[in-house]
Design brief:
By secondary structure, the chain is mostly helical. The protein has two domains: about 90 residues, Hypothetical Protein Yqey, Chain: A, domain1; about 50 residues, Orthogonal Bundle (Arc Repressor Mutant, subunit A). It is built from seven helices and no strands. Helix 3 runs antiparallel to helix 4 and helix 5 crosses helix 7. The radius of gyration is 18 Å and the shape is globular. The protein starts with a helix and ends with a helix. The model has no long low-confidence stretch (mean pLDDT about 90).
Length: about 150
């Protein structure tokens, strides 16, 4: 489903002459193709699953956020703006993100599910969260919430 939405969005961007959207969607499709090719060596000839695509989106957004902070430190606001526009295009294909209250509740449920006692259990809690909420949660802030809850 995501693959077809990406293809249709690329066609729409071409029709509307949306250069930023078209460029970003092409980057997404190229990254997706790279992951599909890598999956073939593991015996998966159908391509990666939707949850892996959502993880790829999260990684792309994380990269762009890091670039934004570096560009802003270097005084390159026009490049930071370009990266922010790319984030907005990528987020069009992701499910609605959880708000802070829902994320905190999900973290508490995950801690209870794995019966986490301290910081050494943080990896297991994050694994549960990534499995259940791929693409729906900012895992950087979720990690901070887990750490605070387990400390």
């Amino acid at each position: 489903m995501l693959r077809s939405r990406l293809t249709e969005s690329m066609k729409d961007a071409m029709r509307s002459k949306d250069a930023r959207g078209l460029g970003t969607i092409r980057l997404i499709l190229a990254a997706l193709k790279d992951r599909d090719i890598a999956a073939r060596s593991k015996g998966n000839y159908d391509g990666i699953a939707e949850d892996e695509i959502l993880q790829m989106f999260n990684g792309m957004i994380k990269q762009r956020r890091e670039s934004i902070s570096l560009y802003e430190q270097g005084g390159r606001c026009e490049l930071a703006q370009k990266e922010q526009e790319e984030i907005e295009v990528i987020q069009r294909f992701m499910p609605k993100q959880m708000d802070d209250a829902a994320m905190t509740a999900a973290v508490k449920d995950a801690i209870a599910a794995v019966e986490a006692k301290g910081l050494k259990d943080m990896g297991r809690v994050m694994a549960v969260l990534k499995e259940k909420f791929a693409g729906q949660m900012d895992f950087t802030s979720a990690s901070a919430t887990v750490k605070q809850s387990l400390a």
